[in-house]
Design goal:
Elements lengths: L11 H14 L12 H14 L5 H15 L6 H15 L2 E3 L3 H13 L4 H8 L3 E3 L1
Antiparallel strand pairs: 1-2
Helix pairs in contact: 1-2, 1-4, 2-3, 3-4, 3-5, 3-6
Length: 132
């Protein structure tokens, strides 16, 4: 099990690369919304990690998903970027996720529109995460 203090985190550049690769292989409008930055998302994630108590990998993964999905810094693909960034974060730290893709998509929409939050999402994720 990875200690939370030893986690590998995504950078703003990494999240932007994830976003761009999603849109290259699919559809959507490239680029960032004016006045918004991916670095601000990363700052929000790190601020939450510094000022709040996180006790599990699923809570940190859920935070990544919520911040990116709700941040809406990209012109398109915010929810897709949130999912792939969350999965990448888990993978970098030695974890995987077994989940129905449609259920995961529904949960990301709920995160994005505020019907759920990262704490509730983390509870949903917990039984679906496994250590590689």
């Amino acid at each position: 099990m990875t200690e939370l203090d030893d986690l590998i985190h995504l950078t703003g550049y990494g999240i932007k690369v994830i976003h761009d690769s999603i849109l290259e292989s699919g559809s959507g409008l490239q680029g960032l919304k004016p006045g918004l930055s991916v670095e601000a998302l990363v700052g929000r994630i790190h601020s939450n990690l510094f000022y709040q108590t996180f006790r599990s990998i699923e809570a940190v993964a859920a935070l990544y998903a919520e911040v990116i999905a709700k941040g809406h810094v990209f012109n398109d693909g915010n929810k897709r970027t949130a999912v792939v960034s969350m999965l990448t974060f888990l993978d970098l730290n030695g974890y995987g996720l077994v989940v129905n893709e449609n259920q995961l998509a529904d949960k990301i929409v709920e995160l994005s529109d505020g019907r759920t939050n990262y704490r509730q999402f983390a509870l949903w994720l917990k039984p679906k995460i496994f250590e590689n």
